[in-house]
Amino acid sequence: MEIVPDTSVVIDGRVSERVEEGEFAGATVAVPEAVVGELESQANDGRETGWEGLEELQRLVEFDDDGTITVEYVGRRAAQSEKRDADEGDIDALIRDIAAERDAQLVTSDEVQAEVARAKGFEVAYIEPREREFETLAIEKFFDETTMSVHLKVGVEPMAKRGDVGEMAYETIGDAPLTESDLHEYAADIEDAARISPDGFVELDEPGMTIVQFRDYRIAMARPPFSDGMEITAVRPIVKTTLDDYEYADDLRERLLERQRGVLISGSPGAGKSTFAQAVAEFLTDADFAVKTMEKPRDLQVGPEITQYTELGGQMSKTADSLLMVRPDYTIYDEVRKTDDFEVFADMRLAGVGMVGVVHATRAIDALQRLIGRVELGLIPQVVDTVVYIEAGRVTKVYDVQTEVKVPEGLMEEDLARPVIMIRDFETDRTEYEIYTFNRQVVTVPVGEEGGQSADSGVDRIAKQEIEREIRSVAHGHVEVDLRGPDTAIVWVEDDDISAVIGKGGGRISDIENRLGIDIDVRTLDERPNTTDTDTGGGGMAVTPEITSRHVIIPMEGHAGDTVEVQADSEYLFTATVSRGGEIQVSRGSAIAEELEKAIDHGRTITVVPS
């Protein structure tokens, strides 16, 4: 008797099982090299199925050594193109060809493989896949009612985040460091559950990283070389809430039911954003709205009435195209992080779908600022009209977002009226921020409690920067600006530049004043009292970057040509040379700009130091 096992039955360990039972005793087991290659590839990628299959081959060799069976390795290894097309059946076809050439019985636990072989007239032994009940996972022993996440790594004691929402502590929960064998055992248990149980599925399977969703648990398994050691991180929600559990519940219900909305749920990591999003999704479903989700990975804990979608073909834009055919009333987008995510969110909202997005932000206003440059400014209130900020599991701020045509706070001239995005506190209806275009830049300006500018108003900062930009366009030497009020400023320039800046009959400075709506007094630097730069204490100067639609700009007047290091809270970001215009420009979308914007979003102090 001669048999040819395929990969599925080897991984399941069913060949050695049949040998022990006597069914395959005395048989010649012709193992295709294509099976060996597939198992080796899986093991190199760190997948437990590869290791399990290789262990089965070693058991078969032991049976060969004691004369119970004869093991032969036959055929050729699969080519790289055949490995890539394994899902299309190329490797299965190689295995069937070997069974046909040797007139052997094909042994498989793959139902499709068995049916194809029977259709071609092969002798087939189909062995049902190993069934296992998964009431619990082995790693669940590390969880208690206060545990949000468990962190297991080779050579480290088990760790966990425990506590209440917003007050989590990262603590050691075991005495002995975990071994490689421990982690492989846990990983095999998790992968079996995902493969066999209807309660689990594999969300992502790439070399070095596998993400599994099993019931309420989202489990990430990282392996070298992607990580420096094997690691398993399991996360689960520790609370399930309803909208009634939050502040502003009645007002938010009324707002969501009034019409389809664009909502951003913002907060720091672990603040309870996704928990609140789940409560919103359940409320909308109970209110007879058709609700879907877009998630990667899919880990929102929602009822069966809500279909959860992930990336289609590796792109959320394709998921969005599919959802537009389904026409949900509301879509929960968890999480909106990258430019592509914001663009997809905006496209769906502008198509009339109610959208609820989950965004990382350390302040409520930061969630809106992340749209700047990614969505046309005038469209922002159509894309997002509500911002909800979550802190320690509570709704602490709700913003209403609208557009008005008006003169921005802090500007005086009537001809400076323009579209202004008004961000108002939902509870008090008081305007807290204004967003508008000021001399080609998009600015976000805090508004004081009594309707005026705050002491550190962005209007002052941007106005000063714009005056410097205008004066530098005609002056050759150093330029400094002092604001003396909402509509007056003093400009200090070199003696040689006075006439160029003022212009014939004062015409040039008058043009600048008219463009900016500010009265400007031009004086020489010799008349200016001595001042010093603000130093951060470590030789660095604190700066305030500006974000435009295309660039992140760091003002560095007086330092043209200098090479400097840009840091965030003293952490090195990058090195740059200051332009002749006295600034550093970083193109948005680049890796450097992403890091810089992230630091700004998290409220870190940006400094520059001489390189």
From TrEMBL:
Domain PIN residue range list:
1-115
The answer to whether UniProt assigns keyword RNA-binding to this entry is yes
Q: Indicate the family of this protein.
A: In the N-terminal section; belongs to the PINc/VapC protein family.
Q: Which SUPFAM superfamilies match?
A: P-loop containing nucleoside triphosphate hydrolases, PIN domain-like, Prokaryotic type KH domain (KH-domain type II)
Highest taxon above the source species = Archaea
Entries under PANTHER family matching the protein: AAA FAMILY ATPASE, MEMBRANE PROTEIN
Q: Name one GO molecular function term.
A: RNA binding
Q: Which Pfam families match?
A: PIN (PF01850), T2SSE (PF00437)
InterPro entries per record: AAA+_ATPase, KH_sf_prok-type, Nucleic_acid_metab_PIN/TRAM, P-loop_NTPase, PIN-like_dom_sf, PIN_dom, T2SS/T4SS_dom
Q: Which UniProt keywords apply?
A: RNA-binding
SMART domains (alphabetical) = AAA, PINc
The AAA+ ATPase domain is annotated at 259-381
Per the record's keyword annotation, is RNA-binding included, yes or no?
yes
Q: Which organism is it from?
A: Halovenus aranensis
Q: Which residues cross the membrane?
A: none
Name of the protein described by the UniProt record? ATPase, PilT family
Which residues, by range, are in coiled-coil regions? none
